[in-house]
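Possible race condition, two jobs.
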Amino acid sequence: MSEELHDHDRGLSFDLPTLQRRKMIRLLAGVGLVPLVGCSSDDSDSSASSSAGSSSSAASSGSAECETIPGETAGPYPGDGSNGVNVLKESGVVRKDITSSFGTASGKAEGVPLTVTLTVVDAASGCDTPKEGAAVYLWHCDRDGNYSLYSEGVTEENYLRGVQETDAKGQVTFTSIFPACYTGRWPHIHLEVYGSLEDATNATSITATSQLALPKDVCDTVYATDGYDRSVQNMGRLSLETDNIFSDGYDQQLATTKGSVEKGYTATLTVPV
């Protein structure tokens, strides 16, 4: 992987419309012009401590309301037909394990195992009602910071991309690998929520587009392992507060992440829509 800056999320010039919209909504809410809804849980005012390589818990906003997950750019490598190739219409994209390519491709993404569980809930219900029968399309870069279908050397691969239908609890689970930290972006995972599996596989009617952030202590531990060398350098130049996507707030997007390098990690996040 080269050191040059990836096109996606190239800073304010790329993401200014999204960032300005979010900040304006928050500004108006502050003066009582726009009602905000947020998501809360019993432990919303606390975060679990962690030791290196063991576990980390995301910070929480402590809000007593339910706020829809912030909308973010899908970047230039979505694979949903909005920028070239459309993997969503390919047979085999509906799957839990996204570490390997499917169809005519045979590549496999190597790295520290990561299981991602997202719980999609109805924000209008106060986050109390799971969105059963919705669908989530999830994708992210590999250990080298490359995106399948787009990056040089992996344009024929489609690994680290997949769709799942939410169950009665509103949950989807993906088996994957820990993504890299590439130049200019905090370690993250992209997601799109659809009203149904049919909508997702037809790449129509996106309900929400956002990004999941991974906690620093876990990233530091993973990036100290073989294969993630470049990520160590890139992490040293970044913080959640300076990342051009998460700098305006990341409480709702920072995943609760637990596990170890030896056994793999789990990342969980509630996604109000």
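Job #2 (started ~2 s after job #1):
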Amino acid sequence: MKYPISAGLLLASGAAFAAPSASLLDDVQQRGTLSICTTGDYKPYTFLREDGGYEGIDIALAESLARSLGVKVQWVPTTWKTLMPDFLAGKCDMAVGGVSISLERQKKAYFSDPITVDGKIPFVRCDDTDKYQTIAQLNQPSVRLIEPPGGTNEAFVHRELPKAQLELFHDNTVIFRHVAENKADVMITDASEALYQQRNYPSLCAVNPDKPLQYSEKAFLLPRDDSAFKAYVDQWLHLAKATGEYRRIADTWLAKPAQ
């Protein structure tokens, strides 16, 4: 004869199921806002306009994610140097804007499924493309590099190009001008940024964007150990790609301009 197992017996035997822990997924819906850290200086992913609004691929995607949750976005300004400290201090629920997946960041946070594949390449004056094809050509004392501080571009340069001259420049929105005006020789950046910015700087060229010096993926930065929130973001991203929403958003920024 079978008897029902009481909760008391389960507790006594140590076999009781733990109550599910609270998730940011529930908190966001209850409060009605999703707070998101972004730098606002990295086209085509995130850019802070003069009117105080944000635009870019990741900005539009994040707004779509918020709509799917029935909440509004609260943007939280940050910089590449302070991105992880701000995120870990709880200043925002997630971070977006061309955030590269790295093992160092993975030690402290979760990532969404990759949004896109990218990679580090040289961005140089078009007349100099043959001079800066390889790590060996770039890693020379005569090469003047310029990078924004605190991000994966700077980390790549320190690791792979220690012999080159490095200038850290804090305004990522006009950093390309220094290369165009021969105040620097090379900016190491992601292929997607170089391909976008060469439309604004005709004298600059992306070097081998289809063969990057380092493989990279971009994703949303999420709180560590919150599986429910990550699962929701990943499923939303999957549907955004399957329905064509992601491609429509990306194409508004990455499609080649009409000739």
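The first strand starts at residue 33 and ends at 38.
Logs attached separately.
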